[in-house]
Write a structure and sequence with these properties.
Structural class: mainly alpha
Distance between the termini: 45 Å
Number of strands: 8
Radius of gyration: 31 Å
Oligomer: single chain
Number of helices: 30
Length: about 700
């Protein structure tokens, strides 16, 4: 069983076997074989989902589970080494894909249990040909350095590293002499490389590899000409470079296939080699994925297990891919490709973690730190099961309890994510990893918007003139591409991300001027009577409760009960990040006064208007109870839950026609709040929050 991850047993389980051992033919953390689910062609697995769902953690666990037992390589396409060539390397002789192949081969070359190093003569020859096109004005030391790395691949941890180093030095010397001589640079370097490979390895397998490029298109059976053509195509860029890169990927896979050929290698090497690609939506990811899928679709077989991770669903890039939820592949993947190259991919969506997973993670991280019993369930409601959010909140609890009394305080408290890392507020650490950094300021303002129009209103009034409606729409598309849900009624559909952004907005300045400006702008954006619930929502976010109480009081006798409950819940979903005074207005003091209002402790100081005084105060108490209990940043108060139950019961007596709904809500809402679930309107199939699990999307759609 996997050691650190929760909720990912469908990938790592041993008995019955999860997806990884079925694909690799090897049990995780063991040098023991397992029957293949796909003994012939195997799927290219792509893990999908938004930021923070643990894709990187899954790849790291796969590497740790199989490293040393079978060849394993892991690259992160977002790393700087793939963003551009080194300062001295010309762009025409470098690409993210070529760099990735070198890094992958260096890792795959490491010895494993029962078998030695894997060599990559085909890939080495191709990479030298590519690099040679950039040596026109290079000094001999730079050429030697580049050649030695390519030819050696992996010199660390091997008993033959000394011999390999000397051999690579000889090859480099020949290549430098050819490249700095008077003859044609490229052909001389390639000729020296091929001669040295042939001299350095006398086995039939390596001799065969040295002439592999004879089959390159238009090579005419000459390996040297094939490599020259490969180099020219690479240097040309565009689709010509993609063609050359595809051949380099094919060379890597051919070298791996050769390493497993024959009786002895098959006896020594259990399972399949594993290549892991993180952030595959970024170059070199798309090029690597497409090259493998196209070759497999054309019948060029390999036996390498690829597992990539990418943000979003990948629908535009992998249109014909087979799609599965993680639980669906726990025992069988049921993957069958068709003619389309992208059908060779198996997209597996990583789901959020369950409340039980959250409970175990909080317990493990906090260890001996006493935590409030409601904290794990409240953490799950706030994060929606986002693994990154759960772990960071648990870390904050371990480092800040008992001083922090709520999830809001845990998010605002400093947390240290590593021994060598500075302490930063938890919500900032989360936003750094959950939203695109280049749009953080814009999203902080637009998070309060409900749709494109309201977002444009905020952008026009509070963002630079250069950020217009087209930019708003592009940002919406970017969020969808990254896997954030699209929720009617919210510009930022993910409730956890939205909460973090609104918290950042509230803390942006000491007097909360930015917060006030955003909600005042949106209050003015909804002037019409039919838009009352939006206007009241933002007035409540500013601490103004009178209009909300009056509206709910006046509409209670005549409004449809289900619509009234949804309006109550939407209005009360207004964020409450800071202390408010007795009138409910934002101020700089401490304390959350909603519980006091909900429990009736302020009734005497709040003389009701000329309307029904009893109903007015009851609605006021109810609004504050729902406001507090629906707040994802506050641990549920059992006393407030009891009061919520009582107030809804009393209201049910006043509306015979809506008695059943109000009475059901009086039971369901307090129970949901205590269990860390959203308060859904009873028996409403159209209510997105009428669920038994999952995050509180707080969309307020009526």
């Amino acid at each position: 069983m996997h050691r650190r991850l929760h909720g990912r047993g469908a990938l790592f389980d041993i008995d019955p076997a999860g997806l990884a051992p079925r694909l690799l033919g090897l049990r995780p953390h063991q040098h023991r074989s397992h029957p293949y689910e796909h003994p012939g062609e195997l799927p290219f697995v792509v893990l999908t989902g938004a930021r923070g769902l643990g894709k990187t953690a899954v790849l790291a666990e796969l590497r740790d589970a199989y490293k040393g037992h079978t060849p394993v390589a892991l690259i992160d396409c977002a790393e700087a080494q793939f963003a551009g060539p080194p300062p001295e390397r010309p762009a025409e002789s470098w690409s993210p894909v070529a760099q990735a192949l070198l890094v992958i081969a260096e890792q795959l070359a490491a010895p494993v249990t029962g078998a030695g190093r894997i060599t990559f003569p085909r890939l080495m020859s191709g990479l030298v040909a590519v690099a040679a096109s950039g040596w026109g004005d290079a000094d001999s030391e730079r050429i030697r350095r580049e050649v030695e790395r390519i030819l050696l691949l992996n010199e660390s941890g091997s008993w033959i590293s000394g011999l390999a180093g000397r051999w690579a030095g000889k090859v480099a010397a020949k290549v430098v002499a050819a490249a700095t001589g008077t003859g044609p640079l490229l052909s001389g370097a390639i000729e020296a490389t091929l001669e040295s490979v042939a001299e350095g390895f006398t086995s039939r397998r390596h001799q065969k590899a040295s002439v592999w490029y004879r089959t390159y298109p238009n090579a005419g059976g000459h390996a040297q000409r094939g490599l020259i053509l490969l180099s020219g195509h690479f240097r040309a860029g565009g689709t010509s470079r993609e063609h050359a890169e595809r051949y380099l990927v094919r060379a890597l896979l051919a070298d791996l296939t050769e390493a497993y050929a024959g009786v002895l290698p098959r006896m020594q090497r259990l399972g399949r080699p594993l290549v892991l690609i993180d952030d595959a939506q970024t170059a070199p990811g798309p090029g690597l994925v497409e090259a493998v899928l196209r070759d497999r679709a054309e019948g060029i077989a390999d036996q390498v297990a690829f597992v990539a991770a990418r943000r979003g669903e990948g629908r535009a890039q992998l249109r014909s891919a087979v799609r599965r939820e993680l639980p669906e592949v726990a025992r069988r993947s049921d993957w069958t490709p068709d003619a389309a190259p992208s059908s060779r991919a198996l997209l597996v969506a990583l789901p959020p973690l369950s409340p039980d997973d959250t409970l175990h993670i909080v317990g493990a991280v906090c260890d001996d730190t006493p935590v409030p019993p409601q904290l794990p369930h409240a953490t799950h409601r706030l994060t929606g099961g986002n693994p990154l959010g759960i772990v960071l909140l648990a870390e904050s609890a371990a480092q800040n309890l008992p001083g922090a009394a709520s999830l809001g305080e845990l998010l605002m408290a400093d947390v240290r994510t590593g021994e060598d890392q500075p302490a930063v507020p938890a919500h900032e650490a989360l936003l750094d990893r959950l939203v695109p950094a280049e749009y953080l300021d814009e999203l902080t303002v637009l998070a309060a918007a409900h749709d494109h129009d309201s977002a444009c209103t905020l952008a026009a009034g509070l963002l630079p003139d250069t950020f217009g409606p087209a930019d708003v729409r592009a940002l919406q598309s970017r969020l969808a591409e990254e896997g954030l849900p699209t929720v009617p009624g919210q510009f930022v559909g993910d409730p956890f991300v939205r909460t973090l952004l609104l918290l950042r907005l509230h803390l942006r300045d000491a007097d909360h001027a930015s917060w006030s400006a955003v909600h005042e702008t949106l209050t003015a954006h909804y002037p019409d009577p039919e838009q009352a619930r939006y206007r009241l929502h933002h007035q409540l976010a500013l601490g103004s409760t009178e209009a909300a109480v009056a509206h709910l009081r006046d509409t209670f006798p005549t409004a449809d009960t289900r619509a009234w409950l949804r309006t109550l819940r939407f209005v009360a979903a207004a964020p409450y990040f800071h202390a408010h005074d007795a009138e409910g207005r934002d101020f700089t003091g401490g304390g959350d006064r909603r519980a006091a209002v909900a429990l009736g402790r302020t009734d005497a100081g709040q003389p009701p208007p000329g309307a029904d005084a009893v109903l007015h105060l009851r609605i006021r108490r109810l609004l504050h109870a729902v406001w507090q209990l629906g707040d994802p940043l506050v641990l549920p108060d059992p006393k407030v839950c009891d009061r919520l139950r009582f107030e809804l019961e009393q209201l049910s007596n006043l509306r015979p026609a809506g008695n059943a709904l109000l009475w059901r809500a009086s039971r369901d809402w307090p129970a949901a709040a205590l269990a860390g679930r959203p308060m859904g309107v009873p028996d409403d199939p159209d209510d997105p929050e009428d669920t038994d699990d999952g995050p509180d999307d707080r969309s307020g759609e009526a």
